Amino acid sequence: MKKYENYASALRSLRHAPEQDLTNEFVQSGVIDKFELQFELGWKLFKALLAYEGDPVSASGSPRDVLKTAFQYYDFVDETIWLRMLRDRNDSAHIYDVDKAMRLVDAIITDYIPEFERVNQGLLERYGTMLTK
Predict the structure, then answer these.
(1) Which residues of 63-90 are buried (b: 16+ CB within 10 A; e: fewer)?
(2) Which of 59, 112, 119, 131 has the greatest CB tally within 10 Å of its CB?
(3) Residue 124 maps to a domain
(4) d(CA 40, CA 53)
(5) pLDDT tens across 57-100, in order?
């Protein structure tokens, strides 16, 4: 499944964020950009999987609706973290302050990457080889 392959590929890149010089504003910007991409790939992957499951919310196109429904299907998804990610993704275009950028990078490293990893593992356990074909 191409959407899963894109999600997994982007996650392999984002995993390297903690190894970077996170005090560098340019690096911070890159980590935030990678997070935004990972989030987009994540909710769109949920949307595709909900369509596979036959859920009508997959036709809505709204990230919030897709995420709310995904929480009902996937017990390995942390609703609080994904809704915070949605808010942070929406706000990230308006981060002009170095301190706010660093707080977002910290959240990406400590909360969001582990959640992306948990979702990856949960989806592989649920769908298996269907995702990698």
Answers:
(1) bebbbebbeeebeebbeebbeebeebbe
(2) 112
(3) yes
(4) 20
(5) 988 778 999 999 999 999 999 999 999 999 999 887 777 777 88
14, containing H or E segment: helix 2-14
Structure tokens at 46: 């949920």
Domain that holds residue 81: 2-13+24-132
Domain assignment present for 19 = no
Residue 92: CATH number of its domain: 1.20.120
Determine contact, residues 70/50, Cβ cutoff 8 Å.
Answer: yes
CB 35 within 8 A of CB 112: yes
Please tell me the distance from the alpha carbon of residue 8 to that of residue 5, in angstroms, as a whole number.
Answer: 5
Query: What is the distance between the alpha carbons of residues 132 and 37, in angstroms, rounded to a whole number?
Result: 20
